[in-house]
Amino acid sequence: MDEGVSGFCIKAGAVRAAAAAHGGGNGSTGTKCGRWNPTTEQVKVLTELFRSGLRTPSTDQIQKISTQLSFYGKIESKNVFYWFQNHKARERQKRRKVSMDENDPVFRREDKFSASKRFFEVNQVTHDQPERVIETLQLFPLNSLDETEQEKLRSLHANEYRETVGTFPYTMGSEIDHPPLDLRLSFI
Amino acid sequence: MDEGVSGFCIKAGAVRAAAAAHGGGNGSTGTKCGRWNPTTEQVKVLTELFRSGLRTPSTDQIQKISTQLSFYGKIESKNVFYWFQNHKARERQKRRKVSMDENDPVFRREDKFSASKRFFEVNQVTHDQPERVIETLQLFPLNSLDETEQEKLRSLHANEYRETVGTFPYTMGSEIDHPPLDLRLSFI
DNA sequence: TTGTTATGAATGAAAG
DNA sequence: CTTTCATTCATAACAA
């Protein structure tokens, strides 16, 4: 199991055990050196921005978002950049509700071009959003926000847990009536 | 809190250990579990495929494998995907642990990349490890429909373009359906 | 029960 | 943008 914790960060001691970041607003405030671990606040804001239609923030936007989120914890521009990139990619990936009729008893004709991208049948948290993709959203008025201004953004409560969208209503209701038994690797 | 479906699971019995060797309701058909639990048959096949050299099955292959394995129990494409992903990663992880040769106990510190690709630069590290495995194994000769190349040489420098175009006003709150959450996105 | 291990799933980071 | 890698989180299966 937990073999050598390879990795390249010094993490001199056993840092692994600690973790337990889930469940609560993990500080992530300069904890370890490893990778960015967003706080629930940060994730919430980012998610909301995404929901608002922002998908590929510009450099300027990334900078502003990063600045704002830095209050909630350590964060860098690249984190925001990657977040959006990953979120978008995975959202699309999961969006692939391609119903691969593997159970279809009727031989189907070859589809023109089958989707060749990864796709899982993962449901998505109710998103009744008319898919309005705003590439460039007006973020943060240019008038800089003072420290005091940022303080106002503070307040709030720490929502528990981090975003976890990972469930899916199994669609493959029941099994198919037994196909040729014993297939093993014969199909390779 | 709401982390999707997790927790309750009927756990239809030993699926991994032994048993389940017979075509019979192991925890697959009627179990609504939050997490896939492979049957011994499924694991066996997957392992054999892995041993055969398959490490990163294509979407098409994943599909086929999933279809085949569905006989042994409930399984989805993403399960296969994750299985290979994890198996490969852990194989490598163990390999890495062994790598710590006493020959040179010096730990090389990863240079802190500062950068900028826009803000940060992704330093091109290395690309070694002459991976000697079969990336693409021919599975199921039945229908070896090879999806044609879709779009590969696309995208490119379309970013700048988009950035510029999206400068339209965008009234806050107007277009966006008012977020039900407590938003400090007011600064948008 | 509690603690540990194995591994499914998620995701930040980065390569291609 | 797409795909892969590395690390981490969560939990079923198991041991004590």
Automatic annotation (TrEMBL), chains A, B:
Gene3D superfamilies noted in UniProt: Homeodomain-like (1.10.10.60)
Record's signal peptide: none
Keyword GTP-binding: no
One GO location term (cellular component): nucleus
Chief location: nucleus
Subcellular localization, as worded in the UniProt entry: Nucleus
InterPro entries given in the database record: HD (IPR001356), Homeodomain-like_sf (IPR009057), WUSCHEL-like (IPR044555)
Gene Ontology BP term (one): plant organ development
Domain Homeobox: 29-94
Molecular function terms, GO-annotated: DNA binding; DNA-binding transcription factor activity
Presence of the UniProt keyword Membrane in the record: no
DNA-binding region ranges: 31-95
Protein keywords: Developmental protein, DNA-binding, Homeobox, Nucleus, Transcription, Transcription regulation
Family as reported in the entry's similarity comment: Belongs to the WUS homeobox family.
UniProt-recorded name of the protein: Homeobox domain-containing protein
